[in-house]
């Protein structure tokens, strides 16, 4: 436990390999140190641990450093709807800014390291550092655009196009993080993918099999290899270069 605590204490924005995707991007050294001094880095979250729950007040934003996190909402009948899968470099908690309360839940999907950024301190600092304010606005804008793309996907695309688009976009997100865009491990289950895409788990499993038979992908459990990126992009209704 002491060794884990020491490792957490040595983590900072300066040596973070994904800082270009997060708040520190574009900040000069002095501004970076001011941001870094307010960030709280605690023990890792284990699978199933919650970062926050619906109804709780906004106290912090959370930057995923390693692992993955899912956001979901519960309707009046207690039915769960996954709204986002967050990877390293993503910020979680934007939805609470407008009302000061969270409207969804955030839960670790595997052992995950998270940087906790106290919101009041961040708000004060963005007033003093224009570059930080611009980066925060850019990240919020990206989340809004991602939500719009998802709404379009659910309303206008077939089941095949939904799953293919999901894999193409996931591939692009891994590439942006300096990871392999052709081979990666899915941290989400087939049921979670189906919930997110508005498909049954049976449909998701059938489509994975269909894509594999068509030599678009190869699947080994949760390991996915994209064997024909151009064809996968075509199946998604996207430009051939979308999965390169």
From TrEMBL:
<dbReference type="InterPro" id="IPR050397">
    <property type="entry name" value="Env_Response_Regulators"/>
</dbReference>
<dbReference type="GO" id="GO:0005829">
    <property type="term" value="C:cytosol"/>
</dbReference>
<dbReference type="InterPro" id="IPR018490">
    <property type="entry name" value="cNMP-bd_dom_sf"/>
</dbReference>
<keyword id="KW-0805">Transcription regulation</keyword>
<dbReference type="InterPro" id="IPR014710">
    <property type="entry name" value="RmlC-like_jellyroll"/>
</dbReference>
<dbReference type="InterPro" id="IPR012318">
    <property type="entry name" value="HTH_CRP"/>
</dbReference>
<dbReference type="GO" id="GO:0003700">
    <property type="term" value="F:DNA-binding transcription factor activity"/>
</dbReference>
<keyword id="KW-0238">DNA-binding</keyword>
<dbReference type="InterPro" id="IPR000595">
    <property type="entry name" value="cNMP-bd_dom"/>
</dbReference>
<dbReference type="Pfam" id="PF13545">
    <property type="entry name" value="HTH_Crp_2"/>
</dbReference>
<dbReference type="InterPro" id="IPR018335">
    <property type="entry name" value="Tscrpt_reg_HTH_Crp-type_CS"/>
</dbReference>
<protein>
    <submittedName>
        <fullName>Fumarate/nitrate reduction transcriptional regulator Fnr</fullName>
    </submittedName>
</protein>
<feature type="domain" description="HTH crp-type">
    <location>
        <begin position="157"/>
        <end position="230"/>
    </location>
</feature>
<dbReference type="GO" id="GO:0003677">
    <property type="term" value="F:DNA binding"/>
</dbReference>
<keyword id="KW-0804">Transcription</keyword>
<dbReference type="InterPro" id="IPR036388">
    <property type="entry name" value="WH-like_DNA-bd_sf"/>
</dbReference>
<dbReference type="InterPro" id="IPR036390">
    <property type="entry name" value="WH_DNA-bd_sf"/>
</dbReference>
<dbReference type="Pfam" id="PF00027">
    <property type="entry name" value="cNMP_binding"/>
</dbReference>
<feature type="domain" description="Cyclic nucleotide-binding">
    <location>
        <begin position="23"/>
        <end position="97"/>
    </location>
</feature>
């Amino acid at each position: 436990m002491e060794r884990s605590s020491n490792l957490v204490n040595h983590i900072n924005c300066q040596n973070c390999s994904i800082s270009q995707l997060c708040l520190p991007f574009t900040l000069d050294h002095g501004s970076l140190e001011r941001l870094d001094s307010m960030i709280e880095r605690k023990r890792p979250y284990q699978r199933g641990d919650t970062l926050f729950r619906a109804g709780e007040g906004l106290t912090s934003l959370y930057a995923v450093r390693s692992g993955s996190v899912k956001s979901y909402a519960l309707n009046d009948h207690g039915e769960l709807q996954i709204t986002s899968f967050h990877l390293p470099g993503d910020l979680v908690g934007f939805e609470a800014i407008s009302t000061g309360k969270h409207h969804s839940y955030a839960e670790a999907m595997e052992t995950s390291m998270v940087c906790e950024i106290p919101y009041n301190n961040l708000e004060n600092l963005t007033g003093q550092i224009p570059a930080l304010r611009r980066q925060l606005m850019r990240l919020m804008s990206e989340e809004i655009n991602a939500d719009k793309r998802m709404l379009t996907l659910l309303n206008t695309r077939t089941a095949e196009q939904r799953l293919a688009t999901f894999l193409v976009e996931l591939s692009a997100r891994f590439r942006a993080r300096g990871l392999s865009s052709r081979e990666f491990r899915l941290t989400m289950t087939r049921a979670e993918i189906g919930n997110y895409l508005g498909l049954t788990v049976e449909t998701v499993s059938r489509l994975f099999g269909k894509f594999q038979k068509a030599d678009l992908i190869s699947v080994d459990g949760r390991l996915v290899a994209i064997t024909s990126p151009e064809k996968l992009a075509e199946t998604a209704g996207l430009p051939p270069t979308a999965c390169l």
